[in-house]
Write a structure and sequence with these properties.
This protein has three domains: 97 residues, Elongation Factor Tu (Ef-tu), domain 3 (Beta Barrel); 123 residues, 3-Layer(aba) Sandwich (Rossmann fold), CATH 3.40.50.80; 99 residues, Beta-grasp domain (Ubiquitin-like (UB roll)), CATH 3.10.20.30. The protein contains eleven helices and 21 strands. The strands form five sheets. The protein has a six-stranded antiparallel sheet with strand order 6-5-8-3-4-7. A six-stranded parallel sheet has the order 12-11-10-9-13-14, sandwiched between helices. The protein has a five-stranded mixed sheet with strand order 16-15-21-17-19. By secondary structure, the protein is α/β, with parallel strands linked by helices. Bound molecules: FE2/S2 (inorganic) cluster. FE2/S2 (inorganic) cluster binds next to loops.
């Protein structure tokens, strides 16, 4: 296409033809009505934003597959056919009413962003020993079950401006799901980075998605997978626990790399020291927390003592029971008080509330509050433990 330009008196080219278009514009303005135009019923930009980031989505369980004895894969289909798009590594939060409690739980998405364009997500749920919600899901979600989910969220994603071109992923247990999504996104060219995944499990039969991971690794040179078994010796597998030596063995020689880790808390306790010994820049290390630390309360010396939590919601006060070794959010949920919740690990800020009185404990590992929030007494109830009676203002 040839662009016509008009030379200005100074010799500068008028690429947008402003000189020619101005008289037309002035004449259009002169002809226009003085009356204010009625605003459109709906702005297009709002329509697009709502479809990309819906407040809630209705999903229907389309398929259930057992991955291991206590680990199931759910295929969820958006009721209206449109699943909100996401970045590989993000999670979905679900709300469940169990008895008189209202609980929200987040699960990493195992499918690829491209699958969301076809209205589908896949999530995997593993039974947790004292897991109130995981047990409920595994026992109740079957084909046809209708679920309310929020839009995808989360920061455990590849950022080219922050992360190195090669990522060493460390996965344990159900922590494999965000990496599966990343591997698929790399294969489908939605993401552009190299991923070497170190996937740890007790035995070979505890490895989920092995065929799928092997298939992607065989056809795409940007993705590699190494299986690490902690029990027994099997040919073709690494053995022991994933630590600094194994990461160094598979890291690219002579260039930067990022370490992304997702797995159970016990894995982090060991791995964080190992990763520290690698001397990587802070921005190259990303640990995905799956809920608040189970040992946080113990670490702070908080015991199984009851306390009173006074909840102020739009001026109305309600007193509920709390426990010093459970989070403030757990007290809300047990009392059936629904507050906005997503990550449950202190990170997203959705549950941000004001601590009006009383003392609380927040472990450093989950204290993601803004400095001003911490200074002015705001808390994230999902990672805050009451040290005694407290008063909290929600909403
Ligand atoms: S739910 Fe994300 S900070 Fe509490």
């Amino acid at each position: 296409m040839k662009i016509k330009t008009t030379p200005l008196s100074s010799g500068i080219k008028d690429f947008t033809n402003t000189v020619l278009s101005l008289p037309v514009r002035f004449s259009d303005v002169a002809k226009a009505s003085d009356k204010q135009a009625a605003p459109p019923a709906e702005f297009q930009v709002n329509k697009v934003a709502a479809s990309l980031h819906p407040k809630t989505q209705t999903l229907i369980v389309e398929n259930v597959e057992s991955l291991t004895d206590d680990f199931k894969l759910y295929t969820l289909k958006a009721k209206n056919g449109k699943a909100a798009y996401f970045r590989a590594g993000q999670y979905l939060s679900f709300q469940a009413e169990i008895g008189s409690s209202v609980c929200t739980r987040a699960y990493s998405i195992a499918s690829s962003p491209k699958e969301a364009l076809n209205g589908t997500y896949r999530i995997a749920v593993k039974r947790v020993d004292d897991g109130f919600v995981s047990g409920y899901i595994l026992d109740n979600w079957e084909k046809g079950f209708v679920i309310t989910a929020y839009a995808p969220e989360g920061t455990f994603v590849y950022e080219p401006l922050r992360d190195a071109k090669t990522v060493i992923g460390v996965a344990g247990g159900s922590g494999i799901t965000p990496f599966l999504s990343m591997a698929k996104a790399i294969d489908e060219r939605t993401e552009n980075f190299n991923l070497t995944l170190l996937y740890g499990a007790r035995t070979e039969k505890d490895l989920a998605f092995k065929d799928e991971l092997d298939r992607i690794a065989a056809q795409n040179g940007s993705f590699k997978v190494v299986y690490v078994l902690s029990e027994g010796k099997t040919k073709g597998f690494e053995h022991g626990f994933i630590g600094a030596d194994l990461i160094k063995k598979y890291a690219p020689a002579g260039c930067d790399y990022s370490v992304f880790a997702c797995g159970p808390e016990a894995m982090y306790a060991f791995l964080s020291k190992e990763v520290e010994s690698l001397g990587l820049r802070k921005k190259f290390v990303r640990f995905e927390m799956q809920g608040v630390s189970k040992t946080a309360a113990k670490k702070a010396g908080l015991k199984n003592e009851t306390c009173k939590v006074t909840v102020i919601d739009r001026g109305k006060e309600t007193v509920i029971d709390g426990r010093c070794d459970e989070t403030v959010l757990t007290a809300f949920e047990k009392a059936g008080i629904a507050v906005p919740v997503r990550c449950r690990s202190g990170e997203c800020g959705f549950c941000r509330s004001k601590l009006v009185s009383g003392e609380v404990y927040i472990d450093d590992s989950s204290d993601y509050r803004r400095i001003a929030d911490a200074q002015f007494g705001y808390i994230h109830p999902c990672c805050t433990f009451p040290k005694g009676d407290i008063t909290v203002k929600i909403n």
